[in-house]
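Review form for a predicted model. The reviewer records the input and the model, then writes brief findings.
Reviewer: anonymous (R2)
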Amino acid sequence: MVEYLSLGWMTVEVVGAIGIGLLSSSLALIAFGSDSLVELISGFAVLNHLKGDSLGSSDRGERTEKLTKLLLVALIPVIGLSAIYSYLEGIRPEPSLIGVAVALGAVLIMPILWVQKRRIGRETNCVPLSIDAVESATCFLMSLALLGSLLVNYLFKIGWIDYLATAMILAFVGKESIEAFRE
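Model under review:
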């Protein structure tokens, strides 16, 4: 059940963050939504694994896991080059109250998903679900950075803070990528 809730919320994050990011020129929202897309694919891999376990097949999600890792690594140059392009072109993100709402939702929901996935993963000795819990924790940390930047831009009209949040999200994605390939 928790994985279905997670997939539902990840869908909201992907559509909301990328859509609002495009409308408001917020690279931080787009980067956050892109990472959420990778987490959504990963969530489907975990769900396939869980279904496979109940059907007696444990290698069901291996290809999806490899794809997820490659997508995660691909985000690094996409986010980095997009940030450089946005900066050089002078693109200034507009304040977005809807973006703040998406980030606030992630700040409130992701810790619940993280704790529940970690608990169930430990109780059932399900490594993929425990790994998914770590991704939820990372998403929570990224959402804190995103929310902070969006609030600063909304309240004080300081658009460059979006670049700082994008750099923080890029650092989280880089860390996730390294950890994904160590497994």
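Findings: The chain has one domain: 2-182.
Further findings: DSSP finds six helices and no strands in the chain.
Recommendation: see findings above.
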